[in-house]
Amino acid sequence: MPSKHTSKHSYTESEKKSIYKVMSERRDVRHFNQKPIDYETFMTILSSAHLAPSVGLMQPWRFIHITSRSLRENIHDIVDKERLLTAQALGEKKEEFLRLKVEGILQCAEVIVAALPDKRDEHIFGRRTLPEMDLASLSCAIQNMWLAARAEGIGMGWVSLFEPDALKKLLNMPADSHPIAILCLGQVDEFYKKPMLVEEEWTKERPLEEMCFTNGWNKP
Ligand SMILES: Cc1cc2nc3c(=O)[nH]c(=O)nc-3n(C[C@H](O)[C@H](O)[C@H](O)COP(=O)(O)O)c2cc1C
Predict the structure, then answer these.
(1) Of 105, 173, 181, 205, whose Cβ has the fewest other Cβ atoms within 10 Å?
(2) How far apart are CA 113 and CA 203, in angstroms?
(3) pLDDT tens across 63-75, in order?
(4) CA 146/CA 191 separation, integer angstroms
(5) How many domains does the chain contain in total?
(6) CA nearest 156: which of 67, 32, 34?
(7) CATH assignment at residue 128
(8) Does any domain span residue 219?
(9) What is the pLDDT of residue 6?
(10) Ligand 1 center to residue 6 CA distance, Å?
């Protein structure tokens, strides 16, 4: 909920409420219905990515829109392979994991692969000691899309279960680029009320207090 703070720069009460509403009601979505997304809405969501902050204004986001059905099926195969390897790696949680829905690649309306570009080493500002700030910047862009999609009533899922080299090869990506996310966008019958992993009792959310320290890495 919004705070009571106001200044001449504050948004109105109802504008503020919308911001917090979309943050709290955004969900990672894996269940889609078969309805399409109109082009204008699709472009609105994609454009929100381009408003994101980025290290040294590097804008290290590249988006590959997958319109070929066979390519989409190939992507799904790559993800399913990794899903099974992840299940193996999970040991005793294997069967529980296999029951979870972890992607909606074949059901969603649109698939976008989000990637870091090649030649990233040319960008030194803000990355000399922390090269992963390119990834942080791309993640900001994806979060913008997630929020815009929720506000538009569109579900979006972030899929990271894949072997990057396999995806790179499939999409003819440059050697030093790096795919980060397979984004699934589509219409939904409903949004999950809580993270699906909580609804499915895979895990629990932990409170903010456990993540905050004072004056050093001490007890919460
Ligand atoms: C970087 C990143 C990668 C993710 N990869 C996957 C994935 O491969 N499959 C999946 O089902 N969910 C994936 N998720 C979604 C998370 O499981 C989800 O964000 C988390 O459970 C909290 O749920 P919420 O996003 O609905 O609040 C990913 C989320 C992030 C931020």
Answers:
(1) 205
(2) 27
(3) 999 999 999 999 9
(4) 13
(5) 1
(6) 32
(7) 3.40.109.10
(8) no
(9) 85
(10) 34
pLDDT level of residue 102 (50, 70, 90 thresholds) = very high
Ligand 1, atom 29, residue with closest C-alpha: 158
* Domain assignment of residue 151, yes or no: yes
**DSSP percent split of the chain into helix, strand, coil, nearest 5:** 45, 15, 45
Rounded Cα distance, 36 and 27, in Å: 19
Pocket of ligand 1 (CB under 6 A): 27-28, 30, 102-103, 158-161, 195, 197
Exposed/middle/buried for 51, CB within 10 Å: 0-12, 13-18, 19+? exposed
pLDDT one-digit tens code per residue, 122-155: 999 999 999 999 999 999 999 999 999 999 999 9
3-state DSSP assignment of residue 206: coil
The residue segments making up the domain with residue 196 are 27-155+163-211
- Burial status of residue 138 (CB atoms within 10 A of its CB: 0-12, 13-18, 19 or more): buried
Residues 6+ apart with CB under 8 A from 112: 46, 63, 64, 65, 66, 182, 183, 185
